[in-house]
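pinned: reference chain
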Amino acid sequence: MILSDRDIKKAIADGRVKITPAPDFETQLGSCSIDLRLGNEFRTFRRSKIASIDVRHMPTTDELMDTVTVKDGEPFVLQPGDLALATTLEWLEIADDLVGRIEGRSSLGRLGIIVHGTASVFDPGWRGKPVMELGNLGIVPVLLYPGMRACAFTFEEVSSKVEVPYYKKVNNKYAGQQTPLSSKLSEDHEK
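pinned: its structure tokens
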């Protein structure tokens, strides 16, 4: 069952959901979700230097992508057809008996901006800055600003507390991330 606004506030008060810096409920809390804001750091593909990506033999993150840091008040321009990874401004921790889901905001969706391609689930025990897979499906560039509300998180209770929360999984790839890490898919093939 998806947590309501009152249940999200209670989960935050009880420490089952931790958001740092603390959200402003007046502007960020919806009826059954809480908006998180866009951070300042983005990762973009080096189109001119990559012919293709072999998921079994991926180049290093630094060979695939550039890091772009945008100052407060300045825009990040997301071109049509582009994909950029970005973190939220907030650090998020989810209890071992909740699952989080990242969703796009309707106002951005109506401009052609998606915030996740497929990775919407944040496992019980998630800790870190959530990464958005920002895509521009539209036909014109869209300017995005650090600090703007960029995504909405919903939370659901799982049937019981999980045995192994995400941050304790031996082979987790993204626990504790502070920056928008690129894909670590090739690690699946190394095992």
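why pinned: The first helix runs from residue 5 to 13. The first strand starts at residue 17 and ends at 20.
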